[in-house]
């Protein structure tokens, strides 16, 4: 037993923390989530070195928004542009139906962030609405109701504008006769392994019906529905950079709305849509010089974006498929081709109640047998969403985070992804999996956490020791809900504070203990708040 506990502690010490800092949070007033019967909460990240913020990417809680927003490389790209991010949980509205009050709630949220952060331009800053899957309709509708404030649109593994096939499975909004998104660049991404012509055709039809629309498209080659690869994240970041270069005026003021420049679609490029392994394609070209069928072409900012798209397509054509499955307890798990998430695995924790193992393997196309018909390379595991962190590619740990522990729909749900990027002979392979964990553990000894209050610290402070204990003697874990800080074990490390941040800044940290199934109950999480205040020497 002691050996097992020692091994577990080593794992905990080595565990990678998926949660980057989000320096501020606000309650979104005026909306009550059906998931929690509470007001949603919004979290703001700003690049620490940004003297001013040029735009903010806004994502609501679905799935892959988390993957993208927590990627170090994506954050770095945004930081170089002076672009921030907002993540809202639970989401406000899949449709962005203004009759629900969502528009007023959004505007109040932005004003609250401006007031609390010290970055007053957030009241007016241009927005990049971004959504995945069931939240991928909202970006188009947001833009239609906020054309003057929408810098660009990103629909990730999602929908076309005004589509009749919404990711959330209900009707779309009617825009009316005068509302449009002319001159606003929009990017639709669909994975190669989720390909559905019925989703692509409305995007082509929209572009032809509205010739001043700037609809770009990326087939996410070698990828599926749930994942965000580094190349795709960098593609999105470049799209945002181009939007800033084309639309953001150099003389924009901090204290008034930004007069975004309208994109002239004829100044861009055209390139043919994705056709699978079809090799012969018309050459991408400037808008007025394109010789292919314009009904089958999408718009791109310039030669760089069009060429990058064509290169993605070229790299993945005419390669062999490879397939990934999972093993638990030495056996291949069941694969359900009819399910949205094709692999649903059991939660089989170790003695600590938290740590578990899954082994990704190459299989045949039916996922019933192991196979050698593949690259033979490494299969990488990553978190998509939910309370889990990846310790290594076969070992994982329950890890709650700023979503909180009170969402009956989401708290217990984990989604992860296995992938292999392929090589010159094989396409990239991806396979998602889901796990439902018991939440809460309600059988066994009741458990309580004692978490002493934390005194305010000066702006010069680098770290804070956390001292929560469980009355059952089990190790207590933590997450930073909001504030410029991250947790490493029982040490809270203060991260870089944005240069124009208004002091004091509040940090909220939560102590939790999941318990052990059948033996120890889940403890009620305990939240503590403290302030970063100016140095006494200033």
What are the key terms here?
single chain, 538 residues, alpha+beta, Rossmann fold, Immunoglobulin-like, 3 domains, 8-stranded mixed beta sheet, 4-stranded mixed beta sheet, 8 helices, 30 strands, disordered N terminus
How many structural domains in the coordinates? 3
Range of strand content: 25-35%
Task: Please identify the top-level CATH class of the largest domain.
Answer: Alpha Beta
| Count of extended strands | 30
How many helices?
8
What gyration radius follows from the Cα positions, in whole Å? 24 Å
Low-confidence stretches: 1-18
Q: Helix share of residues?
A: 10-25%
Largest sheet: 8 strands, mixed
Which structural category fits the helices and strands?
A: alpha+beta
CATH superfamily of the largest domain: Alpha/Beta hydrolase fold, catalytic domain
Q: What is the overall shape?
A: globular
Which whole number gives the mean pLDDT? 95
Name the strands of the widest sheet in spatial order.
1-2-4-3-5-6-7-8
Distance N to C terminus: 52 Å
CATH topology assignment of the largest domain? Rossmann fold
